[in-house]
């Protein structure tokens, strides 16, 4: 269950304890990638490098926060019969705006991420948060929940990207100029690499190890 209360009064801000609980849920106890196992297609496909993972993670974070907020604002205007199509339209509009902005300002990264940017529309995590929470609570809490869930997804993407690039390609933050605007910010140790980590099977193995590490830490408590 979410840490955010449902059917809150409009435009109220969560207190510090509630905000902390929501962030903890998004980052740890309800993490989209490690617990709910949603959005695995982009999670595994795009995390081949840290820069790609960071770019897609930031786009997903923006999409989750913006769509949650927008859906919370229109929640009283949509009937039960049309709410899912309405949510999908909102999500598609937000994701398209993010994709166009990335195409304009970060064309190299946009070209690398390719089809996975518009496919954010089909990410089950976004529609799931819209249906389970954003449509039932006020905009402030919906925005906080979207930010927390997006941050958790970004964290898993970035960790996977760092591991896969470091182990599989022997570098870190190669082509950082695509996202950070710097000519180069790269650590190269390509003489020590294990190629399978950069391939899809390696992504599954590393994600499984991350899930196992999380479970092991819970079992010690």
From TrEMBL:
Coiled coil: none
Organism classification: Bacteria, Pseudomonadati, Pseudomonadota, Gammaproteobacteria, Lysobacterales
Reported function: Part of a membrane-bound complex that couples electron transfer with translocation of ions across the membrane.
Primary location: membrane
Taxonomy, superkingdom: Bacteria
EC number: 7.-.-.-
Membrane topology: Multi-pass membrane protein
Quaternary structure note: The complex is composed of six subunits: RnfA, RnfB, RnfC, RnfD, RnfE and RnfG.
Protein name: Ion-translocating oxidoreductase complex subunit E
Subcellular location: Cell inner membrane; Endomembrane system
Gene Ontology biological process terms in this record: electron transport chain
Keywords: Cell inner membrane, Cell membrane, Electron transport, Membrane, Translocase, Transmembrane, Transmembrane helix, Transport
GO CC terms: endomembrane system; plasma membrane
UniProt organism field: Aquimonas voraii
Family: Belongs to the NqrDE/RnfAE family.
Keyword Methyltransferase applies: no
EC class of the enzyme, as a word: translocase
Residues annotated as transmembrane: 53-74, 86-105, 111-130, 142-163, 194-213
């Amino acid at each position: 269950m979410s840490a955010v209360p449902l059917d809150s009064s409009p435009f109220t801000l969560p207190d510090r304890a509630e905000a902390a609980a929501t962030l903890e849920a998004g980052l740890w106890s309800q993490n989209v990638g490690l617990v709910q196992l949603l959005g695995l297609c982009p999670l595994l496909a795009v995390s081949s490098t840290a820069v790609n993972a960071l770019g897609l993670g930031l786009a997903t974070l923006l999409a989750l926060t913006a769509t949650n907020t927008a859906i919370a604002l229109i929640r009283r205007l949509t009937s039960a019969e049309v709410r899912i199509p309405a949510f999908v339209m909102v999500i598609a509009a937000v994701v398209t705006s993010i994709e166009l902005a990335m195409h304009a300002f970060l064309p190299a990264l946009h070209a690398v991420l390719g089809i996975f940017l518009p496919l954010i529309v089909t990410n089950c995590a976004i529609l799931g948060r819209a249906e389970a929470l954003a449509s039932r609570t006020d905009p402030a809490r919906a925005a906080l929940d979207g930010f927390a869930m997006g941050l958790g997804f970004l964290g898993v993407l970035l960790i996977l990207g760092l591991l896969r690039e470091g182990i599989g390609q022997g570098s870190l933050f190669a082509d950082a100029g695509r996202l950070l605007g710097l000519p180069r910010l790269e650590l190269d140790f390509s003489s020590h690499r294990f190629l399978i980590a950069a391939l899809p099977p390696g992504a599954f193995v590393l994600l499984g190890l991350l899930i196992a590490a999380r479970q092991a830490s819970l079992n010690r408590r």
